[in-house]
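Exercise 3.2. Students should predict the tertiary structure of the chain below and write it as structure tokens, then compare their answer with the key that follows.

Predict this chain's 3D structure.
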Amino acid sequence: MPPAAGSAVIATGIVSVGLHLTGQEVLSYLLLALAAGLWVLLAAAFALTGDQWVIAGALSISALAAGKLTALPDWTPGLHGVLRITTWVLLGLALTGYAVLLAAELRSPRPAYDVRRWATVFPLGMTAVATLIAATATKVDWLRPFGRVLLWIAAGAWLLTAVGFLVAASRWPRVRRLLRRVR
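Answer key:
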């Protein structure tokens, strides 16, 4: 199953939100349950193919979106509670994805630069931002320092990946010719 198959979950979730916004609560919850079921199927497929970054990124983006929705003042108290719980569940799943990514990197280290490193850096950064947003939206103060730690880990991963790219690029013949011209 290609990573783009995750669009089925995203599309279903978006239509669910649209139905909620138009007062179609039953259909909205039905599609939300369907999206959750699709997510479970896709998560199993991705876990078996090595595309953990896709699911980790999708979960982080979902947690970020849920946090942003939770922060809006327009919700009824009941719906606000549902959004708060949804934010927590999605953030918990995103943090699990973060741990899976770190474990996969430690299990199969690639000491030389590899373009696939960017696929790890993206969900690390997205999870950090989602954690910071969730901390504010759900008013859980202890989550902010945790989000900052995750952000520094992501920034370090970004820096190492960027340096690796620059070192690798400096060895490419075209880049070497360009650098000779600049000197």
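Discussion points: The helical segments are 7-21, 25-49, 52-71, 77-107, 117-137, 143-169, 173-182. The radius of gyration is 20 Å.
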